[in-house]
Amino acid sequence: MDPKLIMYVNRVTEAIAKVNIEMGKIRSKVDEQSNELAKKDDEIAELRSQLEDQNGEIEKLKEDAAKLRRSLKSSTDYKYFDTSSSTSWDFASPRLRELSMASIIFMEN
To answer: Which residues lie in coiled coils (predicted)?
Structure first.
């Protein structure tokens, strides 16, 4: 064989080997990034799940607040209630006030 041809084949073989090494490095980096993206996707899915749970809790709290408001509106006007004739008023008053304030605070937020 011609020595020039052998030298040419050797150079091409070396170039192919270098390309293969570089491609291996690139594949390794791509695999690492793919794994990182998969982890991020998992984190995002978990955060979405938590957000959906919180939205469900918020909706339930809104419904509870609406029920409390309706209950308070439909009940007797307690500020004109004769406290001297009722022993339960002393117990109910702080709780009603607390529920009313919670409803007002919740609606403001």
So the answer is: 30-78
